[in-house]
Design brief:
Chain A: One of its GO terms (molecular function) is ATP hydrolysis activity. Chain A: This is Spermidine/putrescine import ATP-binding protein PotA. Chain A: It holds the Pfam family TOBE_2. The complex is a heterotrimer. By secondary structure, chain A is α+β, with helices and mostly antiparallel strands. Chain A contains eight helices and 20 strands. Chain A has two domains: 236 residues, Rossmann fold (3-Layer(aba) Sandwich), CATH 3.40.50; 124 residues, RNA polymerase II/Efflux pump adaptor protein, barrel-sandwich hybrid domain (OB fold (Dihydrolipoamide Acetyltransferase, E2P)), CATH 2.40.50.100. In chain A, a hairpin with a 2-residue loop joins strand 4 and strand 5. Chain B is mainly α. Chain B is built from eleven helices and no strands. Chain B is globular. Chain B starts with 6 loop residues before the first helix and ends with a helix. In chain C, helix 2 packs antiparallel against helix 14 and helix 10 packs antiparallel against helix 11. Chain C is globular and about 80 Å long. Chain C is mostly helical. Helix content of chain C is 78%, strand content 1%. The chains are: A alpha+beta, B mainly alpha, C mainly alpha. Chains in contact: A-B, A-C, B-C. Chains B and C meet through helix 1, helix 3, helix 4, helix 5 and helix 6 of B and helix 2, helix 5, helix 6, helix 7 and helix 9 of C.
Chain lengths: 382, 273, 318
């Protein structure tokens, strides 16, 4: 095995770990510029068949441009894109075996639900009976059989979303492109639909590529996530790896909440690295090797749920610091505590509210101990 | 805040609209005047309408006008829709500034200049003037109006709908006819109607570009008005006003009803979900 | 090595990326473009050319006429015979420059009057209950659809000496002698304000209607009385609409022919009327072309300003 997976792998499906696996979609040194603005910067990426892949990033990071280049709405200035071995350069969108589900759904307002779903099939001049059967199948898949004769404006937001999905699936594309597919739905419906999407993808065995700015959405649906910033890919990994082993401060900060402490490498012995942070009495010991040399500035990153709070000094006194409770946020399921450890460092700790008591033992201005295990955080060098 | 109509707003609305409508209303009333003196009320009569129908010159002019308006509105709608697509979709290309200039300029260009310049063009290329030269002239300025109307429709149009069609395998030209045109159709129809009435209405440009045998209704009305106001012209005008008014109001009622139905459908769909 | 590969790919990729936009797109651009070039832009050059010719008793009534068969020599001879005589004539005869000045003056005054009538109307519409607004809008647009000529004509019956206005005023006892309104500049003002009112009200209404009511509430909340909020918030924010509307009235009004011809009198000097008379009555095509060229030059500045404003508004929407 190439490397030890962190946490449980969601499915026993990991073609990216197999060096012989043939990529299904490949971006090879792709650059796209709009005038002076470089939207995608010399980017390479491999996506495998049957993978649910997410492009995640803030607005303007180039994720939508990547998808639009794959769909054929933009042509890269440099580099090549391959889909199932075919070089897509010069292939117009209407001849590409990729279909897209649009953020706005882009339903044809003058056609019925049926008409929308049948549209792509009609372009292929399939026999009428076949089209009808396929449309019925698709409507059944998204549970909209009863709405076949309706026009888009006679549907609710969730129903429209499903029509758009059925329409883009109808042609059995080699890859389904989803552009912020759930952005217009309210939170509850969005969460339900996320799971429906993963089930659907597993059932159909198709390759899905989703573009989203919502990290929870990407984590829920995707096998692998590419975190993008300023036209570049910062990290490609499974959701668990992205969360637990971010490769940079950008990724660590972008995904979830994190404590970041600037420190210097004090000693490196075998498996562990000792860090010295200004204002900390003790060294931070991390069970991780680093390429940074002794004396280099690095960042120690740790998720708030891995930081424990206690009044008594922890028994294993290695990774601990004393702090003063500065702020408390009660979110229902968890509470977030902000503790001031040094003049510059405020550490966050989330604590699950496992009991129903309204009075919490820890309160403002309390002096507490913050402690964590040696393998709970990571050292970041960039 | 002050959402209720204040006395100032009501007054300005009443005065404003009276100013806009009173002259036309008076014109309509006096077209039913028995008396030959236009400003003296001599009792109700429809005799001027009969008189009008017996005036062969007027009828001929009306027929010419309708044919000109129909042809020029149709050509202008095709060209104007293309121009709107260029404005809305073609992005930056060399010569775009000139192009949009040529679209906007005719909207404000004095008619005497448009008329004179087109006439001189027809003379320069030795084109005999008449029916078709009026159509070309009307097409030229009406297409700019169509372009503006259609462009505003295109501007409020979600482009991803077209992209979706392309994505589903529909080539660009077919996408235009299957998707874009049906969606912008209300704008195109409005553009056609506008082009039609502009042509119906035009005196100056037609006067410059016309030739023997192609006298339009506005030209006929103008020459009669110069001789003095007659109740017969009142009758013609009333019919023209009625024609346009009915057309415009009918269209807007149909549109409004569709919109209300649409809103109702949307509310119902959300309520069911 | 990867670098050279990437460079090679870049070379290859540029050409097809550009070519793809072409054919269909260029065809789409070409058709309306060609039409407008030939029937809108080229005629202006012909007008300019003829304005440099001399009048002649011939068909067409100007000299020299351009004949392609004479080739290059013919063209040169043609060019050498052009003269600016017509323009000199325009400056010598005070009829013309008086017409220009008077046109601009009448157009500017009527634009101001239209604004005075139109602003309250547009404001009233924008502040009317939402349910009424489509109907009110319809009522403003409707006259715009009905014939311009008819609407001007309707005023003749009202304004003339024995017309309805005078009858009303006499009956009310306001006057005891009929007022002479028709065939004066006053009638021209009335005609222009009346005919062009929708052009001003529509863009103005559009901006006023978009004006966020909460801005006025915020002003009021911060202690600003309504009349001052009107001046410091409503008026500045409606300025784009005011400007667009004023251009839409002013520019065509300068070259107006029908209104001064039907409602104005012999002392009403407007350049559209002068041009018409020069062309149809005197049959002096070169001089009327020169008149048109100067009129165009006068209007170029407002037209360019208007287009810039339109374009900016369009980009702001996008």
């Amino acid at each position: 095995m190439a490397k030890k997976p962190i946490g449980p792998v969601r499915r026993s499906f990991a073609p990216w770990e197999n060096p012989d696996a043939k990529p299904f979609i490949e971006f090879r040194n792709v650059t796209k510029r709009f005038g002076d603005f470089t939207a995608v910067d010399n980017l390479s990426l491999k996506i495998y068949e049957r993978e649910f892949f997410a492009l995640l990033g803030g607005s303007g990071c180039g994720k939508t441009t990547m998808m639009r280049m794959l769909a054929g709405f933009e042509e890269p200035n440099e580099g090549e894109i391959f889909l199932d071995g075919q070089n897509l350069r010069g292939v117009p969108p209407y001849r590409r075996p990729a279909n897209m589900m649009f953020q706005s759904y882009a339903l044809f307002p003058h056609m019925t639900v049926e008409g929308n779903v049948a549209f792509g099939l009609k372009q292929d001049r399939l026999p009428k009976g076949e089209i009808e059967a396929r449309v019925q199948e698709m409507l059944k898949l998204v549970k909209l059989e009863a709405f076949a004769k309706r026009k888009p404006h006679q549907l609710s937001g969730g129903q429209r979303q499903r029509v758009a999905l059925a329409r883009s699936l109808a042609k059995k594309p080699k890859v389904l492109l989803l552009d912020e597919p759930l952005g217009a739905l309210d939170r509850k419906l969005r969460e339900e639909t996320q799971f429906e999407l993963t089930d659907l993808q597993a059932e159909l065995g198709m390759t899905f590529l989703i573009v989203t700015h919502d990290q929870e959405e990407a984590m829920t649906v995707a096998d692998r996530i590419a975190v993008m910033d300023k036209g570049r890919i910062i990290q490609v990994a499974t959701p668990a790896e992205i969360y637990e082993v971010p490769n940079s401060r950008f990724v660590a900060d972008f995904i979830g909440s994190i404590n970041m402490i600037e420190a210097k490498v004090a000693t490196r012995n075998g498996e562990a690295t000792h860090l010295r942070a200004s204002g900390f009495d003790r060294e931070i010991v991390v069970d991780q090797q680093t390429e940074a040399s002794v004396g280099d500035t690095v960042w120690f990153a740790i998720r708030p749920e891995k930081v424990r709070l206690s009044f008594d000094a922890p028994a294993d006194g290695c990774n601990a610091v004393q702090g003063e409770i500065w702020d408390i946020g009660y979110l229902g399921d968890v509470s977030i505590f902000h503790a001031k450890a040094t003049e510059d460092v405020v550490l966050k700790s989330t604590v699950a509210n496992v009991t129903r008591t309204v009075e919490r033992p820890i309160s403002w201005d309390d002096r507490v101990w913050l402690s964590w295990d040696r393998d709970a955080g990571v050292i970041l060098t960039r | 805040m002050r959402k209720g109509p204040s006395w100032f707003n009501v007054t300005s609305l009443v005065l404003g609209f009276s100013f806009l409508y009173l002259p036309i209303v008076l014109l309509v009333i006096y077209s039913f005047n028995e008396s030959k003196l236009v400003t003296v009320w001599g009792g109700f009569s429809t005799k001027w309408y009969g008189e009008m129908l017996r005036n062969q010159q007027l009828l001929d002019a009306a027929w010419v006008t309708i044919r000109v308006a129909f042809a020029s509105a149709t050509i202008a709608t095709v060209l104007g829709t293309l121009a709107a697509l260029v404005l809305a979709r073609s992005g930056r290309f060399s010569g775009r500034t000139l192009f949009s200039g040529m679209i906007y300029a005719p909207l404000v260009m004095p008619e005497v200049i448009l008329g004179l310049s087109l006439l001189l063009l027809f003379v320069a290329i030795d084109q005999a003037r008449g029916f078709w030269t009026i159509i070309i002239a009307h097409t030229t300025f009406a297409m700019c109006y169509v372009a503006i109307v259609v462009q505003s429709r295109l501007a409020g149009f979600d482009r991803s709908v077209e992209e979706a069609a392309l994505d589903l395998g529909c080539p660009p030209v077919k996408t235009f006819f299957a998707i874009t045109l049906p969606i912008i159709l209300p704008g195109v129809i409005a553009g056609w109607m506008l082009a039609f009435t502009l042509s119906l209405d035009d005196l100056v440009i037609a006067s410059f570009t016309t030739g023997p045998g192609a006298t339009t209704l506005p030209m006929r009305i103008y020459s009669q008005v110069r001789l003095g106001v007659t109740p017969e012209i009142n009758a013609v005008c009333t019919l023209l006003v009625a024609f346009v008014t009915v057309g415009v109001i009918a269209t807007s009622i149909v549109t409004k009803r569709q919109e209300v139905q649409r809103q109702r459908d949307m509310r119902r769909a959300e309520a069911q979900a | 090595m990867t670098e050279t590969l990437a460079l090679g790919a870049a070379e290859e990729s540029k050409a097809p990326a550009k070519k793809r936009r072409s054919l269909g797109n260029w065809l789409l651009i070409a058709v309306p473009y060609a039409w407008l070039l030939f029937f809108f832009l080229v005629p202006f050059f012909i007008v300019f050319k003829i304005s440099l010719s001399e009048v002649a008793v011939a068909i067409p009534p100007y000299l020299p006429t351009f004949d392609l068969s004479e080739g290059w020599a013919g063209l040169r001879e043609n060019l050498s015979s052009f003269s600016f005589e017509n323009y000199l004539f325009l400056f010598e005869d005070d009829l013309y420059w008086k017409s220009y000045l008077s046109s601009v003056w009448i157009a500017a005054t009527s634009t101001l009057l239209t604004l005075l009538v139109g602003f309250p109307l547009a404001y009233g519409m924008a502040r009317a209950p939402k349910a009424w607004q489509p109907t009110l809008l319809m009522l403003v647009i409707l006259p715009f659809w009905t014939s311009f000529l008819i609407r001007v004509y309707a005023w003749i019956g009202i304004l003339k000496n024995e017309g309805l206005l005078n009858q009303l005023l006499l009956w009310l006892g306001v006057i005891d002698q009929p007022l002479t309104i028709l065939n004066t500049n006053a009638a021209v003002y009335v005609g222009i304000v009346y005919s062009y009112l929708p052009f001003l009200v529509l863009p103005l209404y559009a901006t006023l209607e978009k004006l966020d009511e909460s801005l006025l509430e915020a002003a009021s909340d911060l202690g600003c009385p309504p009349w001052r909020a009107f001046w410091s918030i409503t008026v500045p924010l409606s300025l784009p609409g005011v400007i667009a509307g004023c251009f839409l009235v002013f520019i065509p009004a300068v070259g107006e022919f029908v209104i001064p011809d039907l409602l104005g009198g012999s002392e009403t000097l407007m350049i559209g009327k002068t041009l018409w008379a020069e062309f149809f009555n005197n049959r002096d095509w070169p001089v009327s072309s020169a008149v048109a060229v100067i009129l165009l030059l006068i209007l170029v500045v407002p037209i360019v300003l208007f287009q810039n404003q339109q374009q900016r508004a369009q980009e702001k929407d996008a």
